[in-house]
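To: structure subgroup
Subject: Chain for Friday's discussion

All,

I'm putting the inputs and outputs inline so they're searchable in the archive.
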Amino acid sequence: MKRDWNLVRQILLQTESSPPGVYIQSFTCEGFDRATIIEHIEIMIESKLLDGVVYKTSMVGCASFVVYKITWEGHNFLEDARNDTIWKKVMAEAKDRGTSTSFVVINGLLTKAAQKFAGLG
Protein backbone atom coordinates (compact mmCIF):
# COMPACT_ATOMS: atom_id res chain seq x y z
CA MET A 1 0.00 0.00 0.00
CA LYS A 2 1.21 3.48 -0.83
CA ARG A 3 0.56 6.18 1.75
CA ASP A 4 -1.90 8.80 0.53
CA TRP A 5 -1.61 12.20 2.22
CA ASN A 6 -5.07 13.24 1.05
CA LEU A 7 -6.55 10.25 2.86
CA VAL A 8 -4.53 11.07 5.98
CA ARG A 9 -5.97 14.58 5.91
CA GLN A 10 -9.54 13.31 5.34
CA ILE A 11 -9.29 10.93 8.30
CA LEU A 12 -7.97 13.70 10.57
CA LEU A 13 -10.71 16.11 9.49
CA GLN A 14 -13.44 13.52 10.06
CA THR A 15 -12.01 12.56 13.45
CA GLU A 16 -11.85 16.19 14.50
CA SER A 17 -15.50 16.73 13.57
CA SER A 18 -16.74 13.92 15.80
CA PRO A 19 -18.06 14.82 19.27
CA PRO A 20 -15.66 14.45 22.21
CA GLY A 21 -15.75 11.00 23.80
CA VAL A 22 -17.35 9.37 20.74
CA TYR A 23 -15.17 6.61 19.37
CA ILE A 24 -15.07 6.19 15.60
CA GLN A 25 -15.44 2.75 14.03
CA SER A 26 -15.99 3.69 10.39
CA PHE A 27 -14.96 6.37 7.93
CA THR A 28 -16.32 7.22 4.51
CA CYS A 29 -13.56 8.54 2.30
CA GLU A 30 -14.49 8.91 -1.35
CA GLY A 31 -12.25 6.92 -3.65
CA PHE A 32 -10.80 4.67 -0.94
CA ASP A 33 -11.78 1.14 0.03
CA ARG A 34 -12.12 -0.07 3.61
CA ALA A 35 -8.81 -1.98 3.60
CA THR A 36 -6.87 1.11 2.49
CA ILE A 37 -8.59 3.27 5.11
CA ILE A 38 -7.77 0.76 7.85
CA GLU A 39 -4.12 0.52 6.75
CA HIS A 40 -3.88 4.31 6.88
CA ILE A 41 -5.46 4.41 10.33
CA GLU A 42 -2.93 1.84 11.50
CA ILE A 43 0.06 3.85 10.26
CA MET A 44 -1.47 7.05 11.66
CA ILE A 45 -1.72 5.38 15.08
CA GLU A 46 1.88 4.18 14.75
CA SER A 47 3.04 7.70 13.84
CA LYS A 48 1.12 9.18 16.78
CA LEU A 49 -1.33 11.24 14.71
CA LEU A 50 -4.25 9.25 16.11
CA ASP A 51 -4.98 7.41 19.33
CA GLY A 52 -6.78 4.16 18.62
CA VAL A 53 -6.41 0.49 17.85
CA VAL A 54 -6.70 -1.76 14.80
CA TYR A 55 -8.00 -5.28 15.34
CA LYS A 56 -6.78 -7.85 12.84
CA THR A 57 -8.09 -11.33 12.31
CA SER A 58 -6.78 -14.25 10.32
CA MET A 59 -9.62 -13.75 7.84
CA VAL A 60 -8.69 -11.47 4.93
CA GLY A 61 -10.69 -8.24 4.90
CA CYS A 62 -12.04 -8.65 8.42
CA ALA A 63 -9.93 -6.06 10.23
CA SER A 64 -11.68 -3.39 12.25
CA PHE A 65 -10.61 -0.35 14.22
CA VAL A 66 -11.54 2.14 16.89
CA VAL A 67 -10.21 5.69 16.77
CA TYR A 68 -10.41 7.38 20.16
CA LYS A 69 -9.10 10.82 19.30
CA ILE A 70 -6.55 12.93 17.47
CA THR A 71 -3.30 13.26 19.37
CA TRP A 72 -1.52 16.54 20.07
CA GLU A 73 0.80 15.85 17.13
CA GLY A 74 -2.21 15.10 14.93
CA HIS A 75 -3.85 18.39 15.88
CA ASN A 76 -0.65 20.30 15.12
CA PHE A 77 -0.41 18.66 11.70
CA LEU A 78 -4.09 19.32 10.98
CA GLU A 79 -3.85 23.00 11.92
CA ASP A 80 -1.39 23.52 9.07
CA ALA A 81 -3.15 21.10 6.69
CA ARG A 82 -6.71 22.39 7.25
CA ASN A 83 -6.60 25.28 4.77
CA ASP A 84 -7.36 23.95 1.26
CA THR A 85 -5.20 26.59 -0.42
CA ILE A 86 -2.17 25.76 1.71
CA TRP A 87 -2.77 22.01 1.36
CA LYS A 88 -3.01 22.10 -2.43
CA LYS A 89 0.03 24.36 -2.70
CA VAL A 90 2.18 22.09 -0.53
CA MET A 91 1.08 18.93 -2.35
CA ALA A 92 1.83 20.56 -5.72
CA GLU A 93 5.18 21.89 -4.46
CA ALA A 94 6.23 18.45 -3.20
CA LYS A 95 5.20 16.85 -6.49
CA ASP A 96 6.91 19.51 -8.64
CA ARG A 97 10.16 19.23 -6.72
CA GLY A 98 10.04 15.46 -6.72
CA THR A 99 10.55 15.89 -3.00
CA SER A 100 10.23 13.09 -0.52
CA THR A 101 6.75 12.92 0.91
CA SER A 102 7.86 11.79 4.34
CA PHE A 103 6.00 13.16 7.33
CA VAL A 104 8.93 15.41 8.24
CA VAL A 105 9.06 16.96 4.76
CA ILE A 106 5.29 17.40 4.34
CA ASN A 107 4.94 18.76 7.88
CA GLY A 108 7.82 21.18 7.30
CA LEU A 109 6.35 22.43 4.02
CA LEU A 110 2.94 22.84 5.66
CA THR A 111 4.39 24.78 8.59
CA LYS A 112 6.37 27.06 6.29
CA ALA A 113 3.35 27.69 4.02
CA ALA A 114 1.03 28.31 6.98
CA GLN A 115 3.46 30.81 8.48
CA LYS A 116 3.77 32.62 5.16
CA PHE A 117 -0.04 32.60 4.75
CA ALA A 118 -0.38 34.15 8.22
CA GLY A 119 2.23 36.82 7.40
CA LEU A 120 4.86 35.32 9.69
CA GLY A 121 7.29 34.05 7.10
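Points worth raising on Friday:
The chain has five helices and two strands.
The mean pLDDT is 88.

D.
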